[in-house]
Amino acid sequence: ELKADLLINQTKNTHNQIEAMKKYSEDVEKLNEAASQRPYSVLVAGLQRESQHLRELQAENCELRNALADHQNAIELIMSKYRQQISQLLPKEKTNFYTIPNLWQSAKVDEENSVKDQELISRLMTENKGLRDLLYIHRTYGPFIEMMENDGKNNDKNDESKS
Known about the structure:
By secondary structure, this protein is mostly helical. It has a domain at 97-163. Helices cover 93% and strands 0% of the residues. It contains three helices and no strands. It has helices at residues 2-36, 40-93, 100-162. The model has no long low-confidence stretch (mean pLDDT 84). Keywords: Coiled coil. InterPro entries: SIKE (IPR008555). Belongs to the SIKE family. This is Wit3.0, putative.
């Protein structure tokens, strides 16, 4: 029985090989029919041209990959410089948005204090002008007023002495 199974397996293998050979023959026959339309030397020349074209495409592909790698390296360098510049600028330009209301409030208080100071300065300047005017009047008419006061006292004394 073992020998029979072995023979059956060998027969199947042989049958598969025969089928593969038939298929191969058919494929070769189809190729020969296609090739019979053109001479063999033309086919060889066409294959050589295609082969050369494939080599050129492979070389161009290699060049393009190298160029792409160079461009990627350049972009990485540019981006690293850009990130470095941005990281240096951000701390300088960083605004703490929580302090903005406090800054507005302090600016408002400063403005109010400035207005009060201006009002005080204006009042003091008016008072100063009034005092200067009084001083001028006193210096100008002071002796005359004293003289009149003295005359008035003398007249009062005279009136008292007459009585």
